[in-house]
């Protein structure tokens, strides 16, 4: 059976890993979005 200290360590570790992955994803996403050409639009206007 898992005790409280092990559960606490597991929870904190999973939380830190999740936050790290979110920060890495955001950094990669913003870097890729920053490399697009300035006149290039993601959505074309309807007119």
From TrEMBL:
GO cellular component annotations of the record: endoplasmic reticulum membrane
Family matches, as Pfam families: Ost4
Compartments, record wording: Endoplasmic reticulum membrane
Ranges annotated as spanning the membrane: 7-28
Ligase listed as a keyword: no
Alphabetized SUPFAM superfamilies for the sequence: Oligosaccharyltransferase subunit ost4p
Coiled-coil boundaries: none
Protein name: Dolichyl-diphosphooligosaccharide--protein glycosyltransferase subunit OST4
Phylogenetic classification of the source organism: Eukaryota, Fungi, Dikarya, Ascomycota, Saccharomycotina
